[in-house]
Every structure is written in C-alpha cells, then in structure tokens.
Amino acid sequence: MSNKRTLVSNACIGIIRVGILAAAIAGCSSKHVTPASQQAVRMQPSSAPKQDAEQVRKGRLLFDQTPKYAFHYVGNQLACADCHTQSGTADYAAPLIDVAGLFPMFSKRAGREITLKDRIDECFVRSEAGRPLPENSPEMLALVAYIQSLSRGGMNGKSYAKRGLVNLPALKGDVARGRSVYVQAQCTICHGSNGAGVPPVMPPLWGSSSFNDGAGMNNQEKMAAYVYQNMPQNHPRSLTAQQAYDVAAYIHSKPRPKFNQAYRSF
Question: 183 CB contacts (<8 Å, ≥6 apart)?
C-alpha cells in the first residue's frame, strides 16, 4: 500500500510540474494569452460594414503576423501586435481602440500634421525597421480597415480612456540591476538570454531582428511603462516601477538596427 501511495504521489507531482511549465510557456506569448489585468473591450471584425469584413480580416492578419503578410515592407521579425498587444485592444498597451477618428493630428516627431496612413508608415520604418507602404497598397488599405473597425460607435474623435501607456514616476534605470531583473523575472524564458526571442511567438528585444533606434520603444520611459503594465505576460504588474526602468535600461544597452534617416519625415 505504501508503494502504491508513493507512485500516485509522484505521478501527481509530475502532472503539476507539467502544468506549471505549460502555463509558463503559454505566458510568454503576447498574442495568445490575455491576463485578467489586460482584459479590454473586444472589437470584432463583424462590427465593420459587411462589404469591409474581408478587408478587416486581412488587416487583422497583417497586424498580428506582419512579417508574414507584409514581408516586402518589414525589415525585422516584429509584428504590430508585439507592441500593440492582443491585436491592438489591450488596455495601456498602446491600444488602437477609437484611434482612427483622432486623425489627422499633429506629430511632434514628424513636425507636421499626419494621417492614419502616415502613422502606420511610422511603425513600418521605425518599429519594424522597414520601409513605407505604398499609399493605396492592399496592405495599407487592409490595416486601415482593421484599425477603423476598432472604433466603437463610429469614428467620433474621442480618445479611449485607457489609451497609450500607464504613467510612471520619472526614474533612472540601472543596467546592472536590469540584467538581474531580466533573469529573475524570467524574461529569458520568452526572449532568451540573447534577446532574440522565438519569432513569431516571442518577439526579439534587441539585435538585428528587433526594432531600430528610431522606434518609440527605444525610449526608456515608454518601455518601462509597457514592461510595468504588461510583463511578464503570465504575471503582469509584478515588477516595481524601478525594476521596470532597470529592465528597460538593460534592454537599451544592447545593440539594435539604426533608423534609416531617409524616412525621417515619418
């Protein structure tokens, strides 16, 4: 009887360990896991006019798997959804809900008024280290259709309450502390000790496959806010604001592609 109990006990422990490992691996994916703290208004393609439904569907595929469906214009292994989590609908992860109606708007970075198409191109030349989409290309029209479908009750120009990123105090990150947090917070499980990730499921954080130095995420304050709210995926908001800044400092100490100055108007 004692041996039987031992066998049952060991079997149960094995099952629990497998379950924990599976949960940890699932937590690494920014595209497939929705932690409770990231629940957002779910905007489905069916909310778009019927004649645009297929265009919206294509746009969402482009958004979630940009290197696959817009490979002619992408220079790395990042998708739009790697920064705009949960297909652009997660709160305080730069959601695109109700964004379409805010354009045209003045861009400090570009120094001019920009359209929604211009803003999409900003992401392609900076975050995706690529080149602009032709204005009326199938890829551009599909992405515009998808983003427009995320506007509730029409594009009325009202900003979504949980738009952008969370506000954190102005702190200074420390690279050495950030290296320790990167390991202890299990960032390495998803993104690797070399920051390369496992595209397309786990995005690269530095190196030739990551965003270039002209991207919005190449800003310590912005990355810290994103990390604080959204990382790690299976335990968001488990880091302090200081730890988030430290991780951002560590990531920013690593090499990445240079922004192509030919596209500085974006």
Answer: 193
- Its pTM stands at 0.81
User: Which tokens sit at 118?
Assistant: 């211009």
Q: To which H or E segment does residue 114 belong?
A: strand 112-114
Q: What is the pLDDT of residues 74-108, one digit of tens each?
A: 999 999 999 999 999 999 999 999 999 899 999 99
Task: Give, in order, the Cα–Cα distances in Å from 207 to each of 58, 81, 191, 196, 263.
Answer: 29, 19, 12, 7, 21
The angle subtended at Cα 165 by Cα 59 and Cα 140, nearest 5°, is 20
Is the Cβ–Cβ distance between 158 and 211 less than 8 Å?
A: no
Question: Long-range CB contacts (< 8 A, 24+ apart) of 29-33?
Answer: 29/190, 29/201, 29/202, 29/233, 30/81, 30/82, 30/85, 30/86, 30/202, 30/203, 30/230, 30/233, 31/64, 31/79, 31/81, 31/82, 31/85, 31/86, 31/87, 31/200, 31/201, 32/201, 33/233, 33/234
Containing 128, the helix (H) or strand (E) segment is none
Confidence of residue 5 (pLDDT cuts 50, 70, 90): very low
Give the DSSP H or E segment for 106. Answer: strand 105-107
Q: How many CB atoms lie within 10 A of CB 235?
A: 14
> Residue 201 in contact with residue 190, Cβ under 8 Å?
no
Cis status, amide bond into 232, omega within 30 of 0: yes
Q: Which residue has the tokens 């105090």?
A: 169
C-alpha to C-alpha distance for 89 and 30, rounded to whole angstroms: 12
Q: Is 163 exposed, middle or buried (0-12, 13-18, 19+ CB in 10 A)?
A: middle
The vertex-150 CA angle with 149 and 155, nearest 5°, equals: 80
